[in-house]
TrEMBL record:
Pfam families in UniProt: ATP-synt_DE_N
Classification via InterPro entries: ATP_synth_F1_dsu/esu, ATP_synth_F1_dsu/esu_N, ATPsynth_dsu/esu_N
Main localization, broad class: membrane
Organism field: Microbacterium yannicii
Lineage of the species this protein comes from: Bacteria, Bacillati, Actinomycetota, Actinomycetes, Micrococcales
Subcellular location: Cell membrane
Keyword entries, A-Z: ATP synthesis, CF(1), Ion transport, Membrane, Transport
Official protein name in the record: ATP synthase F1 complex delta/epsilon subunit N-terminal domain-containing protein
Family: Belongs to the ATPase epsilon chain family.
Membrane topology field: Peripheral membrane protein
Ranges where the ATP synthase F1 complex delta/epsilon subunit N-terminal domain occurs: 3-82
Domain of life according to the entry: Bacteria
Length: 86
């Protein structure tokens, strides 16, 4: 079962969809999420959020100043500033 991922900034949704893997940087270090991951609430550090879609396509965004929440197979990343890298 894929992750349902939502990456939002203060003023817009940056990306949402299904993913097989998401790696984000927290103040504790990098953390990876796959389906079935235990619940997590963490403070987001400035850095990249790397998303691997279920199709294998890789999405990279810069994010800072926020938090992430993993509950069930739903991962929400809320950042003060976030933007996709072209």
């Amino acid at each position: 079962m894929p992750l349902k991922v939502s990456l939002v900034s203060a003023d817009a949704e940056v990306w949402s969809g299904e993913a097989s893997l998401v790696v984000a940087k927290t103040v504790e270090g990098e953390i990876g999420f796959m389906s079935g991951h235990e619940p997590v609430l963490a403070i987001l550090a400035e850095g990249q959020v790397r998303i691997t879609e279920t199709s294998g396509t890789k999405i990279i965004a810069n994010a800072q100043d926020g938090f992430l929440s993993m509950e069930g197979d739903d991962l929400t990343i809320v950042a003060g500033n976030a933007a996709l890298i072209a």
